[in-house]
Amino acid sequence: MAQMNTARTNAAPAHGVQTDGVQTDGVQADAARAGTPPTHAAPRVAAVIVTFNRLEKLKNVISAIEAQTTAPAHLVIVDNASTDGTGDYLATLETALPLEVVSLPENTGGAGGFSAGMRRGYELGADFVWVMDDDGYPRPDALALLVDGIGEASEALGHAVPFACSVVLFTDGEICEMNNPVPTWDWGRLLVKGRRIVLVERCSFVSVLIPRWALERYGLPFKEYFIWFDDAEYTLRISREGAGVQVLDSVTVHDMGVNQGVNWGMVDASNAWKFAYGARNEGSYRRHHRSLAHFAVFAAQVVVGMRRGGVPRKLRRRIHRALRAGFFFDPPIDRVA
């Protein structure tokens, strides 16, 4: 059971927004405060950050959220049992927004953290949860554009849109390789009508806005996934009856160290544990939520990719075991109500 420590204050902290010598574009809280103070949007948004041992980057994310031109109604920070002083920092933190700290007794991975944070946002009565990692810095208008974009898309498409995500850039301004959403076959349906919005079927949990009704209808992310493919599975799940959208003018900067995608030929001793979770989780999704044929195709892609990449046999066997585990792994959906 998560332990929750709650603090509420109107005091504004003096957080910097410079990380590892890189000044991220458009996230200076001080600059935002120099203009018109942000006001609450008509819909109530709970910004949800999941953090683990990235205290300095977390401070930047908090500053970026405080700098939003449309202020969230709540700031929910899930501390995944950090050991770098994050807990002590959050215990005394004063923010410009109502703050909810969810302190987990053990590290549940990104999947468990997002599940807990989204549940807390729902319990707070939020109309939307705005989900992000602890190293993503949304530009000041990112939230306002997401809120406007999901409303505009819902009206244009004639049905409620299940999520809206931002464009994710690396710190050098290039596209972030790990965070490209997967478009639908008709991705340009709104774009050709002059709207800066494209249709997508899945995205990462780096600045994505999810409406309350989607939480009620589809439940929460699988906390059992721990890490990898939790965001992909969840956004695929909630877009089964209608596509999500990417709002092209809503931008967040992902300060993730190295701007590099992944493939199965990259498995090595240092990252095999992550790839094992990825193999199990995506294998589970394809077996239990698509078809046996989808699982077989995925398994073949993994096996061939590792062989072509020259992955050592010992590590290949580890991933093979994870694939087999995924065949039987089928966690239940955790409901919010």
UniProtKB/TrEMBL annotation:
Annotated segments matching region Disordered: 1-21
Sorted UniProt keywords: Glycosyltransferase, Transferase
Record keyword Glycosyltransferase present: yes
Gene Ontology molecular function terms on file: glycosyltransferase activity
Segments crossing the lipid bilayer: none
Record domain Glycosyltransferase 2-like: where: 48-152
Superkingdom of origin: Bacteria
One Pfam family, short name: Glycos_transf_2
CDD domains: GT_2_like_b
Family according to the record: Belongs to the glycosyltransferase 2 family.
Stated name of the protein: Glycosyltransferase 2-like domain-containing protein
Species in which this protein is naturally found: Leucobacter soli
